[in-house]
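job 3f2a | input accepted
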Amino acid sequence: MKMTRRFFALLLIIVAPLLLSVARVSGDKAKPSQYFAFVGTYTSKTDSKGIYSFHFDSDTGQLTSIAVAATTQDPSFLTIAPNEKYLYAVNELGEFDGKKSGAVTSYSLDPKLGKLSQLNQVPSGGADPCYVSFDGTGKYLLVANYSGGSVSTFPVASDGRIEPAAAFVQHSGSGPNKERQEGPHAHFIASSADNRFVFVVDLGLDEVVVYHFDAAKGWLIPNHPPFAKLAPGAGPRHLAFHANRKFAYVLSEVNSTVTAFAYDGKNGSFSTLQTLSTIPKDFKARNDTAEIVVHPSGKFLYASNRGHDSIAEFTIDPARGTLTLAGDFSTQGKEPRNFALDPTGKFLLAANQESNNIVVFRIDQSTGALTATGQISQVPAPVDIVFVPAK
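job 3f2a | predicted structure (391 res):
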């Protein structure tokens, strides 16, 4: 009896780690590792044709060019429908159909080949739309018009087509920087995690404008308080929430800073925690920030610098939400207008607009540091990168 117990105890010691290892491997294999990466570009001043497709392997970081997925004008920012059947692009145009408006275009997405087929195209409601996202239900597209200084919401039909606008709001006002803030410039729009609010980052007003969102009708209703204020002349561009939804981070383009906020989800309000520079103190040349992303782990925040041509990394205090600058990393190109983390959080892809390339970096999961993998893909004037699993 003693021998039997000892035998089984010894067997458990030997086998348990093996079983755990197998379980971990099986779990990893269950997660998607093969993706299509779609890249929005600027076509008006380059030889770009529109939206480009790539294959991305999240196991190796390999990014392989496939083809021009869709020929269209200035498809700068993209978003994927929650059901992953459709892709949407804003066409960053100053005029569309004879009006001062850009456009929004819908595409059906072939999950096996990564091909896009246009469904329809509608006016965005204002000039130069520069951001598009979905509300929490996946029933409405949210669009920010930069030069128009306005925002629109669009119902999306079950077949993926964009229907006429449900809401349109024109911002008004200006900021102290007469060159960059002569009027409102809506640069980012997204809904809250609970879909009760919609946040608009307006570069011209130095504000994060907050709306109550009527998810039944797609309406935008001014919130109380109606906005969070940034420093005069900051020129806020994009916003990123922490995974715990208690903190939010706003990247300001004009003064190259990131501001940490505590977020109150009950009333959609923001309280300033701190503001830090995204560039070294001794860097005196021109710089414009562009993109901001919080790592899925909630431990790191990244922001891109155009001019310094780098990705700034910050560590996040999980309890207080405050930031500490951890370093910066060259994007190995010019003007990183956008970057994206792959869905696994293992790689960062930097889209260098002026050097016409995408550079892949591996993310150290312990420190957040970036290391170039050597993977560099050529694409004309890349602006935005989105991923969808390859079926």
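job 3f2a | The first strand starts at residue 34 and ends at 41.
job 3f2a | closed
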